[in-house]
Write a structure and sequence with these properties.
Order of helices and strands: EHEEHEHEHEHEHEHH
CATH class: Alpha Beta
Strand content: 15-25%
Number of strands: 8
CATH topology: Glycerol-3-phosphate (1)-acyltransferase
Shape: globular
Radius of gyration: 17 Å
Number of helices: 8
Length: about 260
Amino acid sequence: MQSQPPAAGEGTQPDTQAAQPPPKTPFAYKVIIRLLTPPTVAIAKHTWLGRDNLPQSGGYIVAANHVSNLDFLPMVLMLSVAARPPKVLAKESLFRAPIVGRAMKAMGHVPVYRGTAKAAGALQNAQVALDRGEVILIYPEGTITKDPDYWPMLGRPGAVRLALDTGAPLVPVAQWGPQRILGRHRKLPHLWPRTQVTMQIGPPLDLTDLSVRPDRGAAAKEGTIRLMAAITELVAGLRGEAAPARPYDQFQEGK
């Protein structure tokens, strides 16, 4: 199924299956989305596939590949229209940027303090949000892919660990196209002609067998391998190419 972003004023059908309505979106979030939607649509043609795979009620986790510093814009737009505005787990340094940081805080996104004593706090805050029925967006690679051809890398276990700890559905999503707008080595975005940005939403990952394993670390590691394989398969479908036999190992770089 293909779908395009609806025209201004259109939205999704109300969720009648939820036991309680989802939390209200902060006013600042709504304002920022309205401000960012026109330029996001102006520079890219958006196609969203597999929207039926997004849960219709309750909290859940979206895990996506990371190809550009700008790819959160079309991702947040897609989720805001197709489902609910997500809370993004993002590196803490973004929250210290003068303009972006203020916007991230106003929208209620969650800073990740990787490699510090505060690192666990991001997952705890995300768990609270999931319990309230919110949508959490995570980039399991933790950074823009370093693969020379923008294939997904090995992932970090946070998304799967969160899914195992909460029982929340974990939905893999692939995106392709934002790297043509602002790639790793570009300083200025490509604005015209409009770039095709396509997203493929996959079915929630089945982690049933891992949820009963006593070794949570090993379960999260195995689940992360499955998650990145699912995302990579979706990316391969969007690109019409075979993925590399082995994903780029960001953890071995420089060793």
